[in-house]
Every structure is written in structure tokens, then in C-alpha cells.
Design a protein that fits this description.
Blueprint: H1 9-24, H2 28-46, H3 58-68, H4 74-93, H5 100-103, H6 122-129, H7 139-152, H8 156-161, E1 167-168, E2 173-176, E3 185-188, H9 191-203, H10 228-242, H11 252-264, H12 269-276, H13 292-298
Antiparallel strand pairs: 1-2, 2-3
Length: 307
């Protein structure tokens, strides 16, 4: 495939995503994130269709990254750089550009493990779980979503992808088909989460042939599967309703909370990593900061200083 001199942005993005699927096997959620940043760059630098990516210059890349740096965290800016770098490598393989575009991506200072995990306190978690009540739309679905997040530590995409046949009611387990480790996982289904799922499936879920557990409730899309964005929106509503000022406004605050509670109970980092589906133990090491007794044991005494 060769990128023509003049093309629509949609067609270019589709070619880029196909290349990433074929060469790297990236998940659709990751590809959507990449496409978001690439679209922003191309529209900002080259304007409306038709576009000629050969006109893209290093100064355009620097200007775009610097313009959005104030709106995103250092971690998110790292994702921006990864997306653009992948796109420029695709263009280079197509003979459209050289290495100057990739080299022009500004580095954003970000020190790994420099912060504490952003999680809810036990009181905040109890307040969120106690906030579900009344007859508001989607309340049973949102409660089941939050309990899956708060007890299993799932990613929003993993909740959205959960299928009816993935729940083994007889053995009390949940089968996760794909994780970032690129392999499936079977996790125990906590009783509270199981009961919330049963309430939702019996009393609120629309009649539909869709096999995904969580579906749209209202409107013309009733019965269609939810996206990870819907999962995150359910968390935002729950935090707002409970009046909780969360350190992280999104579904991942529950994932961090689950991991933090496990470490405080003395569960090893390897077990936490396996439970959360981390590809590398390095991702889990930030939670070691919460194991205060262990930190006391390894802390060295301050040397005595004599005048």
C-alpha cells in the first residue's frame, strides 16, 4: 500500500489502524486512542480534506505537542508521544517521511514511581457503594459495574467486554477473555458483585440478543453493548452522587483501590500483579510504597553525626 499525495483523513487513519493491527496486534481501544491524537495533529497542521501528509513538518509536531501539554498529565503525554511515534513509523514505512518527524516529538519529564497510588479510602469506598438507591435510570447496571470494578479491579474495557457466558455461576468465577497480558484469566466472583449482577440481569437489563453483560438502557441504542466510556461515566456519576472527591476521576480509581487494599493486607506484589493482569511486575511496584511495615524493615538508620 502506498499513501497517495492527496487523501482524506479518515482513509489515512484507517490505513494506519490496519497497519497497527497487522504488525502489532493492538487492541481496538488502543487504536482509538492513537487515532484521537493523530487526528488532532493532522487537522491542526494540515487543515481540512484533502490532505497531503508530505507537508507535515517537524515544527508542526513540536507546536502540537506543546499546545496540548497543559491539558494532559505527564503520563497521558507519554501516550501522545507513543501514538505519534507509531504513526510516523507507519509513514516512514510507506516512504512518506523520514526520521525527522519522530525525532521532533518533545520529551515530557515524567519520573516513574514518583507519586503514590491514587485510591479511595475505606470510608470513601463505603460511601460510593452505599450511594446507589432509588429508581433512577440505570441504577442497577451502574451498581453492578462499580462493584465489578471495586472488587475485581477490572479495567473499564474488561468490564465492557464481559459476556454472559463468561460468568460461571456454579463455580463462582469470571472468565476474562483477553487482558493486556494477551491471555485470558479466571477470577473468583465476589459475592457482592455476583448479587449486583443478578439484580441487574433479572430486574433492569433490556430484552436483547446481545451477549455482552452490560448494554445500553435507553433510546434507540437500547440493548446495544456499552463502551468503556459508558463504564467510566457510571463511575463519575457514582462519585458525584456520593459526594466523594476522588483523587482520580475515572474507573481506574477503583483498580488502584483494589491493589492498595491487597498490599495492605500483606498480599505479595507478584500476586497483586497476577490478579490485576499486569504484563510486568514493574507496573505493580508503585504499590510497595503503601506497605509501611515492610518499608520500616528495610529503612536504614540515620548515621550518627558527631561534631
Amino acid at each position: 500500500m502506498t499513501v497517495p499525495d492527496s487523501w482524506t483523513l479518515d482513509a489515512l487513519i484507517e490505513a494506519f489502524e490496519q497497519h497497527q493491527r497487522r504488525t502489532r496486534g493492538l487492541r481496538e481501544q488502543t487504536l482509538h486512542g492513537y487515532a484521537r491524537f493523530v487526528r488532532g495533529l493532522i487537522r491542526e497542521a494540515l487543515g481540512d480534506d484533502p490532505i497531503d501528509v508530505r507537508r507535515l513538518a517537524p515544527s508542526d509536531v513540536i507546536r502540537f505537542v506543546c499546545a496540548i501539554a497543559g491539558r494532559f498529565s505527564p503520563r497521558s503525554m507519554k501516550a501522545v508521544g507513543t501514538a505519534l511515534r507509531s504513526f510516523f513509523r507507519f509513514l516512514r514505512m510507506e516512504g512518506v517521511c523520514d526520521g525527522r518527524l519522530e525525532a521532533a516529538i518533545p520529551a515530557v519529564a515524567h519520573w516513574r514511581l514518583s507519586s503514590l497510588p491514587r485510591c479511595l479510602s475505606d470510608e470513601q469506598l463505603e460511601g460510593v457503594l452505599a450511594s446507589f438507591g432509588g429508581s433512577t435510570p440505570c441504577v442497577l447496571r451502574d451498581r453492578a459495574i462499580v462493584l465489578c470494578l471495586a472488587t475485581l479491579g477490572l479495567r473499564p474495557g474488561e468490564v465492557a467486554e464481559l459476556r454472559l457466558e463468561d460468568i460461571d455461576w456454579r463455580h463462582g468465577t469470571v472468565h476474562l477473555r483477553t487482558r493486556k497480558t494477551r491471555r485470558g484469566e479466571v477470577l473468583p466472583l465476589p459475592r457482592d458483585a455476583g448479587r449486583a449482577l443478578v439484580d441487574y440481569l433479572r430486574r433492569e437489563r433490556p430484552k436483547t440478543g446481545e451477549r455482552r453483560v452490560f448494554v445500553q438502557q435507553l433510546g434507540h441504542r437500547s440493548g446495544a453493548p456499552v463502551s468503556s466510556g459508558v463504564v467510566s461515566a457510571a463511575v463519575v456519576r457514582a462519585l458525584r452522587r456520593a459526594g466523594v472527591e476522588a483523587p482520580l476521576a475515572g474507573a481506574y480509581v477503583f483498580r488502584h483501590t483494589v491493589a492498595s487494599r491487597m498490599v495492605r493486607r500483606g498480599i505479595s506484589l507478584k500476586e497483586v500483579a497476577d490478579f490485576l493482569g499486569h504484563r510486568s511486575l514493574d507496573t505493580t511496584t508503585i504499590y510497595a510504597k503503601l506497605d509501611v511495615p515492610a518499608l520500616r524493615e528495610v529503612a536504614l538508620p540515620w548515621p550518627e553525626v558527631t561534631p
